[in-house]
Amino acid sequence: MLTVDFSRFPLAPGDRVLDLGCGAGRHAFECYRRGAQVVALDQNSDEIREVAKWFAAMEEAGEAPAGASATAMEGDALNLPFPDDSFDVVIISEVMEHIPDDKGVLAEMVRVLRPGGRIAVTVPRYGPEKVCWALSDAYHEVEGGHIRIYRGDELLGKMREAGLEPYGTHHAHGLHSPYWWLKCAFGVDNDKALPVQAYHKLLVWDIMKKPLATRLAERALNPVIGKSFVVYATKPHLPEADAAEPAATAESEPAEAAAPARKAARSTTSGAKAGAKSGAKKTAGATTAAKSAAKNSAGAAK
């Protein structure tokens, strides 16, 4: 069951992908199947071991194309063990609502994402999540549980503050909201309640069979009670002037030293044009002087 819609968030073979807070690995597996170079990271060591086993099984079964790679590793979302600009794509699905320092997580994701790279963020949607909180304290008060409910504009604002440019949003899993409402009503840990069991069977059947009826039903329900809110964004490129400035600085003297040389070059050029009006001989002499001055100016600029 994927929350990220890869028709809106396309991957190219060879893309470097970080699935941050990968959990059981559902998005990491899909990226691997699409030929990406995937790193699945989570702080839960048990889940990471399971994801690593599935990666190995997928490789053995030939589910991933040539050139694809997959690594599962334990790590901290607030201190990612990667250099700047390491990834083309970052996915963080149903994670940020668990982390007190969500701005810190966004900053780390932006740091490791290359300029022009893409990011997908999914969180529980405000309305359906609010119902869950009202029905059950245990749903959100457990250790590691949900500590906040995002409004859509709040999440978009935080992403923009982090330097990202959102380009699309949608809601997902409309069929799943009633399931969680039933879970909260009958007890989050009570899987034996008949309504919960019956609805769970429906969801499993839907995931396995993908019948047209439930696909159409979910498409209609997503805008109304979709369980997840999904945002797609890019990390903008540096402005060309800002990107070129360090290179120019490295090869030249400070602006104070270069300015006289530029002024001298402009003055020489003006003199050469004036000399051209005085005759061929003077023009030749002015041209020679201009070349000499330009050469000296270039030397000063270096």
Give a verbal description of the structure.
With 302 residues, this protein is an alpha/beta fold. Helix content is 52%, strand content 17%. The chain has a 7-stranded mixed beta sheet with strand order 3-2-1-4-5-7-6, with helices on both faces. β2, α2 (45-61) and β3 (69-74) form a beta-alpha-beta unit. α4 runs parallel beside α7, α7 packs antiparallel against α8 and α11 (255-276) runs antiparallel to α12 (280-301). The longest helix is centred in the C-terminal third of the chain and has 22 residues, at 255-276. It is globular and about 55 Å long. The N and C termini lie far apart (60 Å).
Derived from helix and strand composition plus strand pairing, the structural class reads alpha/beta
* Shape field: globular
Number of strand segments: 7
What's the gyration radius in Å? 29 Å
Intertermini distance: 60 Å
What fraction of the residues are assigned to beta strands by DSSP?
Answer: 15-25%
Helix content: 40-55%
Poorly predicted segments: 247-302
Mean pLDDT: 85
Order of helix and strand elements from N to C terminus: EHEHEEHEHHHEHHHEHHH
What's the main sheet like? Answer: 7 strands, mixed
Number of helices: 12
Largest sheet, order of strands side by side?
3-2-1-4-5-7-6
